[in-house]
Design brief:
Blueprint: E1 3-14, E2 31-46, H1 51-54, E3 58-63, E4 69-77, E5 80-86, H2 94-99, H3 101-104, E6 110-125, E7 131-144, E8 154-164, H4 171-182, E9 186-187, H5 193-200, H6 215-238, H7 244-261, H8 268-303, H9 314-337, H10 340-354, H11 366-389, H12 395-417, H13 419-462, H14 468-498
Antiparallel strand pairs: 1-5, 1-8, 1-9, 2-3, 2-6, 3-4, 4-5, 6-7, 7-8
């Protein structure tokens, strides 16, 4: 995989000829060092219909300056992006094309905009000479390529950019911001140079419609948000970032849950096939996520065992087991993301959202229709919890508690989709359901961990090692599960007592 770094920056509008204000007055800045002027030439690539720009993703080939090459910028938060680098080449590097596959889906990446910038660079350093941030004044000329769009084919502007140094405190940018605003500079209205260039040259990417106050409008806004998160986490999973598989899997679950919980608003003949494919994707991602969670759990529990009770090569066996399982499930995950079935799922999801199969109930007011659906899901959860609590301890109860946990997740996801209209009462309700889900989740994690510990004990015994420590850990997991089962009735009673008649 290509090199990557976290980019944290602020951009400001500036008039032609503007010079960078004196920043030595900013707390922590001992000196502002002149680093000269660089001539940069960048060509930005996208699909013809601007799929990357619509997702605030930029892909460019740049020459000049200290970091010539291909740069892919993926949004993380406002003013924060992950920048993935690849060496200079004539064609889009395969690694970078793969990271945007969930957006492009086979559509060709073509050059759309060329930006030529004259960058006057300054380094802000502390009293030890350590870099705090790089501040630059950029004089930019944009040129639209390949025709299309309205308005002028070229545009020019000046902007000031302040980029935080690696490892520096992000709060430093707040101090710089205060100084620049005091000197009359205003934050840029565009998230990137490309966004400004597209706006000035008439190539604006499409925007999703705003919710209209109806139940259908709010639901569609939620579905579009989750579909975008699904595509965004695709790149993070391919980069093997922490928690990325979990977040992508959650997006699939939220989509499926919305289809189920709000089925009175959407035609099931259209949503059921998409939901089935989302279930397939969640299953493919699940192996990777389950391995990750299980490894973290078992490692932390081994760390808690006194050294006198760690008999045999416990840590070495756990590491070997984890590495073997991780390699297997990682290959499975990437194979799924590179397959045609996954691409077809994303296309089907886009088609559904472009022409949503709304039923008549979707025209009803959001503040009445959505809360009612949340309470229906709650009633289903209550039935499952009560059934589980009525069973004796054992495998049947474990399975029933797992089913109750899944129902609790659906209540949470339904409430999150309706959050804009639920208010404070909805937040309290969701918090209570989340507590129940947490207890049920801890119980299920213990069930899964015990199965893994039994397998590890069998492997250890077969290799002539003592299985004592694995048995000890198994017993501790049984105790944790028992504690969850004893806690659940009290937690559930509190939720039931506080359940509102209406949200």
């Amino acid at each position: 995989m290509a090199d990557a770094k976290r980019e944290i920056e602020r951009k400001y509008e500036a008039d032609p000829g503007t010079r960078l204000p004196d920043l030595t007055a900013v707390r922590g800045v001992a000196a502002v060092l002149d680093r000269g002027v660089a001539e940069l030439d960048a060509v930005y690539y996208d699909t013809e219909d601007l799929r990357l720009a619509a997702a605030s993703v930029t892909l460019r080939r740049r020459t000049g300056g200290a970091d010539a090459g291909w740069h892919l910028k993926l949004p993380v938060a406002p003013g924060v992006r992950d920048e993935v680098h690849a060496p200079l080449a004539d064609e889009v590097p395969r690694d970078l094309a793969g990271l945007v596959r969930a957006r492009t889906r086979g559509a060709p990446l073509v050059p759309l905009v060329r930006l030529r910038s004259r960058r006057d660079v300054r380094h802000l350093v502390d009293d030890r000479g350590e870099l705090l941030a790089e501040a630059s004044t950029d004089t930019v000329r944009a040129e639209r390529l390949n025709g299309g769009g309205g308005g002028d084919a070229t545009a020019e502007w000046t902007e000031i950019e302040v980029e935080l140094a690696d490892g520096a405190d992000p709060a430093f940018l707040d101090a710089v911001d205060k100084r620049l605003r005091k000197k009359g500079l205003a934050p840029s209205g565009a998230a990137s140079k490309l966004a400004k260039a597209l706006d000035h040259t008439g190539r604006r990417p499409p925007r999703a419609p705003e919710p209209d106050g109806t139940a259908g409008g709010h639901l569609l806004a939620h579905l579009r948000e989750q579909a975008d998160r699904l595509a965004a986490h695709d790149a993070a999973v391919r980069r093997d970032l922490p928690d990325s598989v979990h977040q992508m899997r959650v997006a699939t679950r939220r989509l499926r849950s919305a289809f189920r919980s709000y089925r009175k608003l959407l035609d099931r003949s259209a949503t059921d096939p998409v939901a089935a494919e989302l279930k397939w994707l969640a299953r493919e991602l699940g192996a990777d996520r389950d391995q990750e969670v299980l490894t973290e759990r078992l490692t932390s529990h081994v760390d808690a065992v006194p050294v006198t009770l760690l008999l045999g090569p416990v840590r070495a066996r756990l590491r070997a087991w984890s590495a073997a399982g991780r390699a297997r499930v990682r290959a499975r995950t990437l194979a799924a993301l590179d397959g045609e079935r996954y691409t077809a799922l994303l296309d089907a999801l886009d088609a559904l959202l472009a022409d949503p199969p709304l039923r008549p109930a979707a025209a009803g007011p959001a503040d009445e229709v959505l809360p009612a659906a949340v309470l229906r899901e709650y009633d289903r959860m209550a039935t499952r919890v009560d059934r589980a609590l009525g069973l004796p301890p054992g495998p049947d109860r474990d399975l029933a508690l797992h089913e109750a946990r899944k129902a609790a997740k659906r209540v949470r996801y339904a409430a999150e989709a309706a959050a804009p209209v639920l208010g404070k009462r909805g937040k309290r309700f969701t918090k209570g359901v989340k507590t129940v889900q947490k207890v049920l989740g801890e119980h299920q994690d213990s069930v899964v961990a015990r199965d893994a510990l039994r397998d590890l004990a069998i492997q250890a015994h077969g290799a002539g090692e003592t299985a004592f420590t694995w048995g000890l850990l198994h017993g501790r997991e049984e105790a944790r599960a028992d504690a969850c089962e004893r806690r659940l009735p009290r937690v559930w009673a509190e939720v039931e007592a506080g359940k509102p008649r209406r949200l």
